[in-house]
Amino acid sequence: MTDMSYFLPLIWAGLLGLAVVLYVVLDGFDLGLGILFPITPAEQDRDVMMNTVAPFWDGNETWLVFGGGGLFVTFPLAYAIIMPAFYLPIIIMLLALVFRGVAFEFRWVSKPNHRFWDIAFAWGSIIATFMQGIILGGFILGISVKDNAFAGGSFDWLAPFPIFTGLALVVGYALLACTWLLIKTEGELAKRSRERAKILLVVVLIAMAVVSFWTPLVSERIAERWLTWPNILYLSPVPLLSTIVAVQCWRSLNSKQELAPFLYATALFLLGFLGLAISTMPYMVPPTLTFWQAAAPPSSQGFMLVGTLILLPAVLAYTVFTYWTFRGKVRPGEGYH
Prior knowledge:
By secondary structure, the protein is mainly alpha-helical. The protein has a single domain (9-325), classed as Up-down Bundle (Formate dehydrogenase/DMSO reductase fold). It has helices spanning 4-36, 43-53, 57-60, 62-74, 76-85, 87-109, 115-141, 160-184, 187-218, 220-227, 231-234, 237-254, 259-280, 291-294, 298-325, and strands spanning 145-146, 149-150, 283-285, 289-290. Strands 1-2 form a two-stranded antiparallel sheet. A two-stranded antiparallel sheet has the order 3-4. Helix 7 (115-141) crosses helix 8 (160-184), helix 8 packs antiparallel against helix 9 and helix 9 runs antiparallel to helix 12. The chain is globular. The termini are far apart.
């Protein structure tokens, strides 16, 4: 089978995967700054932290819109099943992102009476991240489907494994934020971020190990994918690379490097995403609907692909241009707000 009805769903699955990766990495350290707020009480430090992402934070969420919109248009059946399966965590996540976005703007204009907006920024970030992790955990567990419709309950996602992945993602985003601050700040804030990053790295590695051992226990499909011969041999580079990257991340933190810890922490997330992709492929709604079963008609996918191939490079170029333009350290009293 070599016609476009075979390849288009694969192309769109790859594009949606790219959107998820870009969102997790770019909005991950962004949300992570809010997660760090409760343990960073000094107002000057909070000002600097927010100013490090002031030119980027709203643009980072572009990829969330692209992922959700792309899923709706190109895999409508998957969208119709996934949305009711996770209505509550998705709504809570979006509300948290709204509070966080409003807090980002209102915090500056309400000074010195900005405590409420500090709380909104912190808890908006924490709750949004936690809900994203819960959605991820529920997706890994699988979604009940009958007659191409969601057949589960409203609280299927409220289980130990999704709750653990939610907590793990909070820690992971906090790690990304600490390594981001090594690039963008200096002095005591950077020093504390380096020390926190070491602790968070250890916790993230423990969480990754727990998830790696837990997922085969909750899913026979995943156990068969990873633990049968010869798959266990073919897939062994993933955990090996994760170990190497973790060791290099630790070394870069100890050697006072600035950019390397962020790159290694990002690589850990990418390897985690690769593991998730290996565990779920070729299912768009695991363990029931494949990419091809959930896909829109080829004409719809092809039409959307033309526009995406025009706009996506422009968005990527703009993103790179923005980060390049606002490169360098952010110091107390400086900012873009």
